[in-house]
Design goal:
- This protein has 14 helices and 2 strands; from the N terminus they run H-H-H-H-H-H-H-H-H-H-H-H-H-H-E-E.
- The protein is mainly alpha-helical and 347 residues long.
- The protein folds into 2 domains: 268 residues, Orthogonal Bundle (Fic-like fold), CATH 1.10.3290.10; 63 residues, Arc Repressor Mutant, subunit A (Orthogonal Bundle).
- A two-stranded antiparallel ribbon has the order 1-2.
- Helix 2 crosses helix 3 and helix 2 packs across helix 11.
- It starts with 9 loop residues before the first helix and ends with a strand.
Length: 347
């Protein structure tokens, strides 16, 4: 049975608590459906954009958003297929939330199969056994592979890590279990091809399985792009210290707790912007009427002719605007004919 080598530290506990507090704050937000859809699209776009960065692509967030939206694009770079396949893998991951899907080895294989489509043969979607040459293209994580692990042990060790993840679901917080599994996959290099791409997809899958995505709002891959050098350093240090992954787990939790704080701020801005967009004008007044009410806060009265000049409208429009304000009780009329004046009712 897989037993990762780490110690629970004050840093881990502090940042797990921070993550959970931010998570509850986000769950408790009153969010319109429009904001929910925008936030989910933004999270998926961020993941695809940063995935491109991780594989050396110079794409834009606009292109990533198109891919996340399901649009067919000719990116002109074979690595663009990574992004499209990853989007398809995300759709598969989301579909697994509708029914019970245990965290088992066949799920990882299916993710690998989706991710290699159109640039590798279908039968290459498999665990390494014996004699296969690992595809190292576009994979700078391969250097962390534990070469003392025999090929025939790869599948068994991978499944043991997944079993450990499931067995400890009620004992160890998922923000500790997920990085422990990810490190094991990095060291084991379980697949014939696309290990880095598949490990990233597995990480997102484990976040979903652990209900840490929070309605699909949290981008997962962004973290690996922003902190890749830091993570590579932590993995190398762990490999040198008998696979002690305490430092790696601390950094993982700290960075995702920080990401969740940023997500909360981003959601607050989206909600505020949406509220402004949907805000009804005061008493259904038009822009000119609101302007004249502000004007009359400082000027005691206005005549219709003055309204025509100030607002650059016709006499009939001025009459309708002012008469409506009178009917709503916001203005009162004094005088008659050419001497008619409009004054704030509150004066």
């Amino acid at each position: 049975m897989y037993k990762p080598n780490f110690a629970i530290t004050h840093s881990m506990i502090k940042n797990v608590v921070k993550f959970e507090v931010e998570k509850k704050g986000i769950i408790d937000l009153d969010i319109d459906d429009d904001v929910v859809q925008k936030a989910r699209l933004e999270a998926n776009s961020q993941d695809i954009f940063h995935l491109g960065n991780l594989f050396g692509m110079s794409g834009t967030l606009k292109t990533a958003r198109k891919i996340a939206s399901g649009k067919a694009l000719n990116i002109g770079d074979y690595r663009g297929q990574y992004l499209i396949n990853f989007r398809n893998a995300m759709e598969y991951i989301i579909s697994t939330q509708t029914s019970y899907f245990p965290v088992k080895g066949n799920i990882l294989l299916h993710l690998n199969k989706i991710l290699i489509k159109n640039f590798a043969e279908e039968w290459d979607a498999k665990y390494r056994t014996s004699g296969e040459e690992i595809d190292k293209k576009d994979d700078n994580w391969i250097e962390l592979r534990d070469e003392d692990i025999a090929s025939v042990e790869v599948q068994s060790l991978t499944l043991q890590a997944l079993d450990w993840f499931s067995v400890n679901s009620s004992k160890i917080h998922p923000l500790i279990r997920i990085p422990a599994v990810i490190y094991r996959l990095v060291r084991t290099t379980p697949f014939v091809t696309s290990n880095k791409l598949t490990i990233l997809a597995v990480c997102k899958y484990l976040f979903y399985k652990s209900n840490l995505i929070i309605n699909g709002f949290l981008p997962v891959i962004k973290n690996f792009d922003v902190y890749e050098d830091e993570y590579l350093e932590a993995w190398k240090k762990a490999a040198e210290e008998n696979d002690n992954i305490t430092l790696w787990i601390e950094r993982f939790i700290r960075n995702y707790a920080g990401d969740l704080s940023s997500l909360r701020e981003r959601l607050d801005r989206l909600i505020e912007k949406n509220n402004e967009k949907n805000k009804q004008p005061f008493l259904n007044l038009n822009r000119r009427q609101l302007k004249i009410l502000r004007y009359l806060q400082n000027i005691p009265q206005v005549k219709r002719e003055e309204y025509v000049e100030i607002m650059e409208v016709s006499t009939m429009t001025a009459y309708r605007d002012l008469n409506e304000l009178v009917k709503k009780g916001l203005l009162r009329v004094e005088g008659q004919g050419r001497g008619t004046r409009y004054i704030l009712s509150s004066r």
